[in-house]
Design goal:
A hairpin with a 4-residue loop joins strand 7 and strand 8. Strands 2, 4, 5, 6, 9, 10 and 11 form a seven-stranded mixed beta sheet that branches. Strands 1-3-8-7 form a four-stranded antiparallel beta sheet, with no helix packed on it. By secondary structure, it is mainly beta. About 0% of the residues lie in helices and about 50% in strands. The chain has no helices and eleven strands.
């Protein structure tokens, strides 16, 4: 099993920045993809960014150029740096890890492809 815990959420003004952190523990050798997702009430969970074991990254179009995903392998920690935040970025942000090498050969931003989830961190951007 893999345990996941986010930290770093909060409130910020339009145009501001925040950094989310995600600490992983447990059987990390089974993880290939790590990802950030977000969800607002009444909507489906949206994949924001992923980072693979080989450091390849993917981003949702809505955050490209503003968000950066990175990881620190020595400390089993993943980060999401969020710049130029907009009110529409307001959501609960979740980090997640998958199990094993992805069947598609690359990390997707589909919730169903991830097995281990954190409890979520609220990000609120006010105009």
């Amino acid at each position: 099993q893999v345990q996941v815990m986010e930290s770093g959420g909060g409130s910020v003004q339009d145009g501001g920045s925040l950094r989310l952190s995600c600490a992983f523990s447990g059987y990390m050798h089974i993880v290939y993809c790590m990802g950030w997702f977000r969800q607002v009430p009444g909507k489906e969970r949206e994949g924001v960014a992923t980072i693979a074991d080989d450091d390849k990254t993917t981003y949702a179009d809505s955050v490209k150029g503003r968000f950066t995903v990175s990881k620190d392998n020595d400390n089993n920690t993943m980060y999401l740096r969020m710049n130029l935040l907009k009110p529409e970025d307001t959501a609960t942000y979740y980090c997640a890890a998958n199990r094993g090498h992805p069947v598609r050969g690359f990390c997707t931003r589909l919730s169903d492809d991830f097995s281990f989830w954190g409890q979520g961190a609220q990000v609120t951007v006010s105009s």
